[in-house]
Amino acid sequence: MPSLKEFRLRIVSVKSTQKITKALQMVATAKLKRAQEAAQAARPYATRMASVIANLASGAAAGGGPKLIAGTGKDDVHLLVVMTSERGLCGGFNTNIVKLARAEIRRLQQAGKTVKIVTVGKKGNDALKRLYGSLIVGHIDRRGERAVTAESAGGVARQITDRFEAGEFDVATLIFARFKNLLTQIPTALQLIPARAPADAPKVDLQGARYIYEPSEEAILETLLPRYLSTQLLSALLETEAGFQGAQMTAMDNATRNAGDMIKSLQLRYNRARQAQITKELIEIISGAEAL
Amino acid sequence: MADTLNFSLVSPERELFSGEVNQVDAPGVEGEFGVLPKHAPFMTVLKPGLVRIHEASGVTPVFVRGGFADVTPAGLTILAEEAVRLSDVDAGALEAEIAKVKSDANDPGDETRRKRSVERLVYLEALRAALGSTAH
Hints:
The structure holds 2 protein chains of 2 kinds. Chain A is α/β, with parallel strands linked by helices. Chain A has helices at residues 4-59, 67-70, 93-110, 122-132, 150-165, 217-291, and strands spanning 77-83, 114-120, 136-140, 171-179, 185-193, 212-214. In chain A, strand 2, helix 4 and strand 3 form a beta-alpha-beta unit. By secondary structure, chain B is an alpha+beta fold. Helix content of chain B is 29%, strand content 46%. Chain B has helices at 91-105, 111-135, and strands at 5-10, 15-21, 23-28, 31-35, 42-46, 49-55, 58-72, 75-85. In chain B, strands 1, 2, 3, 4, 5, 6, 7 and 8 form an 8-stranded mixed sheet that branches. In chain B, helix 1 (91-105) runs antiparallel to helix 2. The radius of gyration of chain B is 16 Å and the shape is elongated. The A-B interface holds A 41-42, 44-45, 48-49, 51-52, 55-56, 150, 204-207, 209-215, 219-220, 223-224, 227, 231, 234 and B 8, 10-15, 18, 28-30, 40-45, 68, 70, 72-74, 77, 79, 81. Strand 6 (212-214) of chain A pairs parallel with strand 5 (42-46) of chain B.
């Protein structure tokens, strides 16, 4: 049986842990709202962009067009872009993303492909470094950034297109968590290069007419595709941010509740021990007095 | 006019306009063009300049920096890299930012920041020119 003092110390320590988790939960709640709004505001652009790409892809002759949409014609070297959060204390959020990444790496390696990894966010890098450290070819640190901007997505996109142009890989896949709602973030693998028009993009009926392109179809594709890539990365970054805040909020809410339960049971045991000691002392005094 | 054109103007950060309009003028890289209802399918790259949205209630000028215009039978979509309504631009704040970016652009210390400032300056000056052209 621990002494009374030990009980008191433990209660104090759990209480201060609870204060921290409570504070983190409130911070996450506040940030979540902003992150969700940002993710929502970016959605019209992304969906419009997707339908424009779908239009172009349906118009472009199969097999032709710029490399970003047609690919290199090979399927040997795969680049996985693993997007996680910079900080932890968010339950299984990063673990789930990394789990999907690991499964993907195993699947590709078994198929005899070469795998390269670029990590975005510290947590994914930490988790993958142990097992697949030799495969990691790059890491993008987002710790210094306060908010997700079009510019930060552009930075990630540039790094990917630069590597692609240098012939470092044939296929690029992005692994991130789609924000479904507060409690659910779905780890998703999304092929970036060669660009695929999303299957759910609204198809446009041209009613027999043909597109007029200015300056030319190729020139438009060439400027549009890098933009499409950074748009996808931007929405992925925003979803990651919203998902992280959501996951952290839920995780910290649970932690706060657990700490509360723990304090309750510790307090109960402390009170019992204290009462037992008082009773014991009383018995000693009374039996001492009776002996006289 | 019975026919209207379904028009939406979006930038990565938000949707600036969405609705039925009579006509839209936009700055294509190969010249300004107007889009009326039932325009043929058409796609072009935009240069920095003014998009004019003609509605029954009047004309709204919006400044866009780069992007794409996509005309389909369903309507016109403009994907702008950056877009701002001219009525939201504060001339004083714009001048202040131009002055600040100008000093950054002449600062040889940080090469990447300098390059970015030069790009930004081109954009801001185009915006100022657009603002001046509608003022009178």
